[in-house]
Each structure stands twice: as structure tokens, then as C-alpha cells.
């Protein structure tokens, strides 16, 4: 079981989730600590695996990927090895792959430029992973990519 965070660590994590580019001075001001104390705490949070990285977020629509869909997949032959995530990992249109309980085995989030490209992608997924697919096109997203804040 993971260690709990104290109030100062929570402040730092919330600030970093809100702005991953926050400077140590900005973090120190919000936490009421010195820059060196904050630097030490941030390093400890990273070492413990609480903070796992810093990255840019790209808006798919800003780069022409206007169509997003959930693709539920089920193996055609359940006796075959369950290696679907590894088989699909190289397909860059697959943003995420989740193992799920229920009728399907996995749910993918995919992003493509058009319905025609989605159709081609589904065929590639079926052929690559030997699966059946069921797609749901996303019409509107009210919120996503919400980072967990302890």
C-alpha cells in the first residue's frame, strides 16, 4: 500500500497537476517553504512514483483528428494468447487501451481524421489482433484527461 501524502505534498501535487511547468519558486510560494525544501520534496515525490512525469498535452482537433471513438474489442478465438495490447501498441491512432470486465475484453480510445479513416483503422485492428470490434463515436466531450488529485 502506498504512503499517504502530508498537506504540503498535497499542495505541491495539486500545483504540479494544475501547471506542470510551475517553477520551484512558484511551488515554494504556494507551499510556504523555501525553494530548496520544495526541490527536495518534489524529488521525493518523483522517487516514490507519486509524480510520474511532465508532458505537453496536444489537442487532437488542433492537428486534424476531429473524430474520436471508443472501440470495444473481443477476441475471435478465446483460446489464443491474450496479447491484444501488445499487438495494437504500434498503432498510433490508439490513444489508450483498457482491459475491462463485461462482454468485451478491451476498450480502446482512438482518434482519427475522418469516418473513412476510422473504417480503415477498424479493419487494421481486426486483422492485427484477430478480434471483433464494436465502435461508439464520441459526439462531445465535456471533460477528459482529468488528472487524479489526492
| Average pLDDT taken over every residue | 95
Q: How does the major sheet shape up?
A: 4 strands, antiparallel
Order of helices and strands: HHHEHEEHE
Distance between the termini: 15 Å
Please count the helical segments: 5
CATH topology (fold) name of the largest domain = Alpha-Beta Plaits
CATH architecture of the largest domain: 2-Layer Sandwich
CATH superfamily of the largest domain: Lrp/AsnC effector binding domain/regulation of amino acid metabolism (RAM) domain
Low-confidence stretches: none
Q: In percent, how helical is the residue content?
A: 25-40%
Class by SSE composition: alpha+beta
Quick recap of the structure?
The protein is 35% helix and 20% strand. It is built from five helices and four strands; from the N terminus they run H-H-H-E-H-E-E-H-E. The chain has a four-stranded antiparallel beta sheet with strand order 2-3-1-4.
How would you describe the overall organization of this protein?
- There is one protein chain.
- The chain is an alpha+beta fold.
- It folds into 2 domains: 41 residues, Arc Repressor Mutant, subunit A; 79 residues, Alpha-Beta Plaits (2-Layer Sandwich).
- Helix content is 35%, strand content 20%.
- It has 5 helices and 4 strands.
- The chain has a 4-stranded antiparallel β-sheet with strand order 2-3-1-4.
- α1 packs across α2 and α2 crosses α3.
- The longest helix has 15 residues.
- The chain is elongated, with a radius of gyration of 20 Å.
- The mean pLDDT is 95.
Amino acid at each position: 500500500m502506498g504512503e499517504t501524502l502530508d498537506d504540503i505534498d498535497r499542495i505541491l501535487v495539486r500545483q504540479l497537476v494544475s501547471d506542470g511547468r510551475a517553477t520551484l519558486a512558484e511551488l515554494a510560494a504556494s507551499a510556504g517553504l523555501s525553494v530548496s525544501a520544495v526541490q527536495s520534496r518534489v524529488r521525493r515525490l518523483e522517487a516514490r512514483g507519486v509524480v510520474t512525469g511532465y508532458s505537453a498535452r496536444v489537442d487532437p482537433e488542433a492537428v486534424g483528428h476531429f473524430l474520436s471513438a471508443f472501440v470495444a474489442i473481443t477476441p475471435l478465438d478465446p483460446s489464443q494468447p491474450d496479447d491484444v495490447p501488445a499487438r495494437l501498441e504500434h498503432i498510433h491512432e490508439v490513444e489508450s487501451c483498457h482491459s475491462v470486465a463485461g462482454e468485451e475484453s478491451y476498450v480502446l480510445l482512438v482518434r482519427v481524421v475522418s469516418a473513412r479513416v476510422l473504417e480503415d483503422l477498424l479493419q487494421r485492428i481486426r486483422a492485427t489482433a484477430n478480434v471483433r470490434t464494436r465502435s461508439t463515436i464520441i459526439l462531445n466531450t465535456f471533460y477528459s484527461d482529468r488528472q487524479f488529485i489526492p
